[in-house]
Amino acid sequence: xxxxxxxxxxxxxxxxxxxxxxxxxxxxxxxxxxxxxxxxxxxxxxxxxxxxxxxxxxxxxxxxxxxxxxxxxxxxxxxxxxxxxxxxxxxxxxxxxxxxxxxxxxxxxxxxxxxxxxxxxxxxxxxxxxxxxxxxxxxxxxxxxxxxxxxxxxxxxxxxxxxxxxxxxxxxxxxxxxxxxxxxxxxxxxxxxxxxxxxxxxxxxxxxxxxxxxxxxxxxxxxxxxxxxxxxxxxxxxxxxxxxxxxxxxxxxxxxxxxxxxxxxxxxxxxxxxxxxxxxxxxxxxxxxxxxxxxxxxxxxxxxxxxxxxxxxxxxxxxxxxxxxxxxxxxxxxxxxxxxxxxxxxxxxxxxxxxxxxxxxxxxxxxxxxxxxxxxxxxxxxxxxxxxxxxxxxxxxxxxxxxxxxxxxxxxxxxxxxxxxxxxxxxxxxxxxxxxxxxxxxxxxxxxxxxxxxxxxxxxxxxxxxxxxxxxxxxxxxxxxxxxxxxxxxxxxxxxxxxxxxxxxxxxxxxxxxxxxxxxxxxxxxxxxxxxxxxxxxxxxxxxxxxxxxxxxxxxxxxxxxxxxxxxxxxxxxxxxxxxxxxxxxxxxxxxxxxxxxxxxxxxxxxxxxxxxxxxxxxxxxxxxxxxxxxxxxxxxxxxxxxxxxxxxxxxxxxxxxxxxxxxxxxxxxxxxxxxxxxxxxxxxxxxxxxxxxxxxxxxxxxxxxxxxxxxxxxxxxxxxxxxxxxxxxxxxxxxxxxxxxxxxxxxxxxxxxxxxxxxxxxxxxxxxxxxxxxxxxxxxxxxxxxxxxxxxxxxxxxxxxxxxxxxxxxxxxxxxxxxxxxxxxxxxxxxxxxxxxxxxxxxxxxxxxxxxxxxxxxxxxxxxxxxxxxxxxxxxxxxxxxxxxxxxxxxxxxxxxxxxxxxxxxxx
Length: 909
Ligand code: BGC
Prior knowledge:
The chain is an alpha+beta fold.
């Protein structure tokens, strides 16, 4: 035994000595999850990033260990999986290949990698995930609640707000605990409490799904929150949420009315024994201080009704009532797969005005989603009312007409006796301004703090350049993305809508990926989209799908979003998962068309300006687009016959499009900017038609004194279509405009977010149509995709950024631009500047990837890398000269290129 022990030590030492690889594995993750929450796929996928300080580093192999405990992993025992050394350069989405993973199993893992020279790295730091409850039988609890006598309103105009039920249960723990995990779900939304503390940082759990098809559950490790010697108290508070509260204009109770909670705490003791504390008839319930809570209407809280200590052991619950029990709710429970909603940051007010007696208006300085945290000293019964708005009326009062029927009001009733601090739990608002009335005493600046919420996704991108207008635009785009990435990608966070409109999502999804790691968030949304698919194959206009309807360019999200996630994150599973649904959509398009021309249906180029794009042109263009993406995805998952079929179908649609809509002089039916944009961006034209279309597009922009006329659909591809057809000068003109309509116009007028419509507000007309006038719609923010790809120059050549393009296009009066993107393989950076006729480009390419870098110069011989002729530099290979740029292949690492005579494209006049 002794000898063997010594040998093992020696072996470890030998390994340690060999840990000299030039690359290191970092940032481990499982299934894109930000939280080590429950996963219920049989084969979770593992990814890591390799970093290196040296150029031209590749991974030649990896070894993954997965262990059932941290201790085993530390001892390098992969009792669940030891992949052994796998010769591979893969770092992304490697399917778990070990022993079957049991329900609730904790999994600890790490990885080591080998570099191109065959040297091994040290082991990565450990990471972990845990399996969810995989079988129905793992769930022990009943569905419990406390029903209020108020019935669901009879029509959508009548509103009924009920108090929130509080549920509690005490239990005893009398020996050392190894692990305690709480699983919870609800019809409605829940907040969990354990021994007087909130469990976790997530809001609005278990999220929004088509509750008839699936319901998610939350998983929280609460080991550290338990009293291990004695009494414990577990509690939950319920609210209507999306399940029973107002959604869109459909009123309350769309999915159901009676709120239910199902939870269970699985305790594993150090001695190997188990205890389960599950919801059952022994729990008790009461209504408390939350008198009303609704996503759109807001929250009313009467602090006089607080029940101090209700979530701690020893509370006197004699007055509490027995819970209502539902034995069975017939819907599959699945582990929450997405990024939960969390607090992003606190925002202090910028200024306070008093436009009327007893009325304070606080300007938070930016338009965001969340709530206000209140501090107040008052007498019992004093009622402070907070109303929320995005803009002000000319007299300084808040403008709320555009909220339509959303009440967006929070009310706090003081209990008296000192400083009180409160924030709502079950609502949020989209706002820049807070109106406070009924505040006792003088409102000091620290009495109200904005609390911004958003999906807990990692920020991925950064962008800055020498134009302050462009930087403000980028800030507004990120701000508006955060305000709308709350559980699902919504259209807006403020009015009585807040729905997962599919058109908006597909328009914006590529931009969203530049700004944040939205892989899990969009993958979850695609489940909603498929859940909403109609039996005839039509994808819905929104997901989850309370409203009916199928519209081209909206429904196409069912294909475009999975394709984008596949391209950006290299995720093939999302294709496999939705493959049949996507093909059914394409069948629908074929059967709902005549000679491959789609009918003039749907929303068209929504909110365009003085331009009427024919809907048959738009619909047919999107039919072609989805078909070509399907061909690419079929090939990616090895369905070669399908790939060929869709390639042929694309060629046929293209031919039909040209025959039906394109005149010999290159005019396309309708002759709007959007018809040319779509035809160019979706590759529907061959030469010379493509050149003619680009000319018509540029001419139309010129005829509007250099302005766009595109709506949601056309704007998405406007800048790429101009850039791709050689009219970058026109793209820069649109980008730099600050006259109506343009991005710059809203910024010149103080926008802190992206407006739904170009004419959301104009000096001549004031506010646009209040029926449709949100100041936080991300669709027009899709221009950030172009800002990253064309100004910053960062794009992908192969899925998952295995091969990268760095292709900045200096111009438009910019002196410099800095863009960075944290890809799934590590950070990519592209910074350029022009100084006294010299172009400098600083580029970072992550380890284990390669890039094609375009150095835009008309003097390719002057190109240097780190002060040496570029062709001699390590990691740099000259490929070709192409359209005003020298193109090099780059291995990983940091590079500094300089060149004379940079190619600079000025804005068109
Ligand atoms: C939403 C849009 C959506 C549209 C459909 C609106 O009410 O706010 O963003 O795409 O309806 O046309």
